Amino acid sequence: MLLAEDLHRAFQDPDRGTVDAVVGIGFEVRAGEIYALLGPNGAGKTTTLRMLATLLRPDRGRVLVDGIDAKRDPLGARAKLAYVPAEAGLEPQLRALEAVELFARIQGVKQPRQRAQALLEELGAGALAGATCGTLSTGQKRRVVLARALVHDPPVLLLDEPTDGLDVPGRRDVLGLVRRLAAEGRAVLLSSHIMGEVEAVATRAGVVARGQLVAEGTLDELREIAGERDLSEVFVKLTGDGSAPA
Fold first, then answer.
1. Are 46 and 213 in contact (CB under 8 A)?
2. Quick one: pLDDT at residue 124?
3. pLDDT at 246 over 80
4. pLDDT at 216 over 70
5. Which of 8, 206, 217, 225 has the most C-beta neighbours closer than 10 Å?
6. Residue 226, pLDDT score
């Protein structure tokens, strides 16, 4: 459903020159699977997600989204995926319903306003429909961004810290939604620093460090590779990063 092959991406830094952010990353996310992408800050996770979402062109390698080559047909690939970035990116003057409805219209969704309202309700944000996005809290914005991304019912989901800013009930609701979407046959790629969330939902995981995929497998397979049971310790051992996530 989602295939990344030999992805490379470098940037020019005025002080350091060429910086290799992603070096040869490749993995597959199958239909019905929740694949967690783990790694410390600066490891290359967000750069990888942006390449998968067609927002950043890889220097080398390819991305297939439901069989569509994202480099050759980025618009076709975008129609097949939802990307929830770590930042909200909501226009502050738009009302929440308008923000979701706008994306529904762009994606050619039938009855866009009804679909937008129904999805906000499903995400526990129905009461926010008339509020301007600039007045929303971080957690409220998160719900609106999720609704905006899912409004065209795509088969592939790219979620970068999807529960960031949510309270405990909000996290529970979002993780429940992620499980349900995967159970319906969607491929879900989840980037998270919260190891408890990863343990709760992930089918498999890939560990990224210094721009490379250093380990991949089920959570039990990663535990065996690292020789540790606690997932935070597995993360530290595999990445060589001294600051374990929560």
1. no
2. 83
3. no
4. yes
5. 206
6. 92
